[in-house]
């Protein structure tokens, strides 16, 4: 037995089990369709249990995690991956995972798996408070010849104990029977009325949900950017300035380092590191809070509540998962669009992902918001997030106006909603630290190389003579001066901003350090780079950076998931939208009359659209010829 | 919360209304319901409505699922 594959319905805990068994950290959350590809890793046995496993000669076991599926004749993209995998691979053992929330729901897949004539074991993930009734467990065991185990996936010990038993099962005595799933003995479990926790009652209700959700988001931002975040941020900042910075300078002077070497380390690498690492505690807190909300299942309820709204702009509630994930990382969010039912929906969602800026841009937002609007920094960060959401909404609305998705009503009309549960704190902390580790390792390697290149461009002229950091004769000033005038209408036409924008294409993590290095200013004086109206200019700059194209890694992923033509469309849409929204933001802050004219224009457009729609609705439906029918789409479906 | 205020069921459980023809539910919906282990004739409760009222949250045993109103309109005759 060398290959074990984990199969089950969506959101039963496959990835959680996989992470525990292989000591991995793949993303697992309380919503459906998070895993959209296969993952394989070797079984990682804890040292305390090694003697027990060694007795059974267990070694080189590969575990494979597959996307969730309800049946083996499914038609969605990620379900097909599972089905294709099971057809092509002859794994030694299939572990069919059930969840205890509704036992009956798992029967369809299990009965289909039995037909594959492979060795099967069932593990029931006992999710609190849904205990598996002993009567039902006995019925399952008595009626089938498949080994059945129950364990809680939050307990590592419980999981490995079950696996010790699995490796000792003698499969020769088992004879899988197909007909056991057709018996009615399980119906005892089906007529029970659902019960809800207080939190579920709040999040189910149409009026209490917006209040509860906004309160949750406010608390999240308050924790991350409030006293707790500030405390850790100041601590790290002082550590860099007072201890590391001073010691480094003393050391360089004591060894009589060359002036350009001191310049490189002090104005190049050190500023870049300090600028970002000071904001890492706040970033870590925000990611942890988002991970907790994800683990509780709050975002699934958001998907339900905005499903109808999103359908009006050509998306569905399921798009929310990818859009929320893009706050963490745009690149992985693009991959998760695979769980959307049509190519059009996938492309529309991918097109909107750049407007939900990833966490790597947080240090830039936090630094500018803290320095220029210290008292109102929460509101500025929150407002920029809101501008991103509104921009995405308007872009989707515009696309839907010109290219209406006719069959939107037929996509995913039935979507399962997970029950809310308590977040597993150690798991969420582990996830947050993994994100932090990824960010830090990527940042250290990228920043060292890019700071050096940028410092070189800023300190040497085209004749490769050292002219001093930030000199007007440097190569960098000459190159940037060609691009910089483009940003004059947006209010931030400085070389440092141009460098930051260009660097963010390589990686969003570089935006702030490059801004600091390029401006050759300390972080405390960063607002000096915004000439004239620093408030309007800096907000305009932040909005532009927030909506600007994603990093190269994300663009490559978009190309892999779609094609070159669509990738170019994403780039052009992002640049054009970022420019327009940034322009509007800058002039709206400078001149409130501009804002008034703009809002009036939008209201006029909306009213005009209502009149046009009213005229269209007065026409007879082309499918049922009913004068009052306005549901051409529905009629179309019924006619099919 | 009272969850039994509105209840969906099949015709066989609903003497008040005209027969519900399962053809009125789109094949896509039926397929999804079957995937979740819900057959026509199962008792389904309405437990919530989305902010814009266009999507309904339904419950069958401990399974929660949401269904767009376009589809729900077709089974409205099943209100008890």
Please explain how this structure is put together.
The complex is a heterodimer of chains A (640) and B (80). Chain A has 26 helices and seven strands. Chain A has a six-stranded mixed beta sheet, with helices on both faces. The model of chain A is unreliable at 627-640 (pLDDT under 50). With 640 residues, chain A is mainly alpha-helical. In chain A, helix 10 packs antiparallel against helix 18 (425-459). Chain A is globular, with a radius of gyration of 28 Å. With 80 residues, chain B is an alpha+beta fold. Chain B has two helices and four strands, in the order βαβββα. Chain B has a four-stranded antiparallel beta sheet with strand order 1-2-3-4. Chain B is globular, with a radius of gyration of 12 Å. The interface between A and B is large, with 46 and 40 residues. Strand 7 of chain A pairs antiparallel with strand 4 of chain B.
Task: Using brief descriptors, characterize the structure shown.
heterodimer; A: 640 residues; mainly alpha; six-stranded mixed beta sheet; B: 80 residues; alpha+beta; 4 strands; disordered C terminus
* Structural class label of chain B: alpha+beta
**Strand-residue proportion of chain A:** 5-15%
Q: Sheet with the most strands of chain B?
A: 4 strands, antiparallel
Strands of the biggest beta sheet of chain B: in what spatial order?
1-2-3-4
Write the layout of secondary structure elements.
The complex is a heterodimer of chains A (640) and B (80).
Chain A: E1 3-8, H1 14-22, E2 39-42, H2 50-55, E3 62-65, H3 77-88, E4 93-99, H4 107-114, E5 120-125, H5 134-143, E6 148-151, H6 156-167, H7 198-204, H8 208-225, H9 227-254, H10 259-277, H11 280-296, H12 298-311, H13 319-325, H14 330-336, H15 343-352, H16 362-372, H17 377-402, E7 414-417, H18 425-459, H19 475-483, H20 495-506, H21 511-519, H22 534-547, H23 552-561, H24 564-590, H25 592-618, H26 632-639
Parallel strand pairs in A: 1-3, 1-4, 4-5, 5-6
Antiparallel strand pairs in A: 2-3
Helix pairs in contact in A: 8-9, 8-11, 9-10, 9-11, 10-18, 10-21, 11-18, 12-13, 13-14, 14-23, 15-24, 16-17, 16-22, 17-22, 18-21, 20-21, 22-24, 23-24, 24-25
Chain B: E1 7-8, H1 27-35, E2 44-49, E3 55-60, E4 63-68, H2 69-72
Antiparallel strand pairs in B: 1-2, 2-3, 3-4
